[in-house]
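FW: tagging you since you asked about this chain on Friday. Here's the raw sequence from the shared folder, copied in full. Didn't touch anything.
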Amino acid sequence: SGALRIGDSAACRDELLRFGSLTIDLRGARRWLCDLPSLRADPTNPSVATAWQSVWQALNARQIQSGAEIVAEDLFRSDETIRAGAPRKAGEAMRGLLDATQRLDLTAISSLDALIGLGSGLTPSGDDLLVGYLAGLWCAVSDKSERIQFVSNLGKAVIRLSRQTTDISRTYLFHASRGQVSSRLADLAEAICRWENSDRLLTTVESAMQVGHTSGMDAVTGLLIGLVTWISPASLAFMYRQFLLKL
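HL: got it, structure written out here
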């Protein structure tokens, strides 16, 4: 208690992490790695679709209840009822990025400029959305070379542009571009793709959403969108009507 003070510097050298007078020995610590492509997300599977829907509903309810700036369902409304500022900009950028991804069109990803660094805080909402979105795409590549190539190139573009955001966000974006995300987000992706039972699923989504003030919710939003990006147009339209647009 009292070992850490606001303003203390931090440094890591020779696997020793130092915060002011506190030293943490990381030698022998196991490096966290996840394997998102092995999940082979298939949202057309009724069980996976049901799990996805449960998480989507829990997410939107939490965002509305907490007064979050970004609400997942609003990202897909193009009308003028959406609040100006970050919510509207995020919606426009995500819709553009989704369209480009569906067409595997790297020339149409100018939306990244609008997302990276969008919002306030140590990890702005736009960055958190992208971290989750990249995670969802890596889950859905399904060994298809054109998808793998697209996500790899998308990740390179994200890394190039990441200098316009915070140092912490840049680190998250760098690793997400390579398919590496936090254990909480990876656990949620697995729970959806493996259609865990409802109690386990809701416990996992609660854990993922609790990260930071809104960072967890924003990352979960991106994850859910990324998971369904590459399903057939007819299936995607159905999911939009039922779960996204709520028409």
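FW: The two ends are 53 Å apart (CA to CA).
HL: agreed, and The CA atoms of residues 43 and 231 lie 7 Å apart.
FW: great, closing this out.
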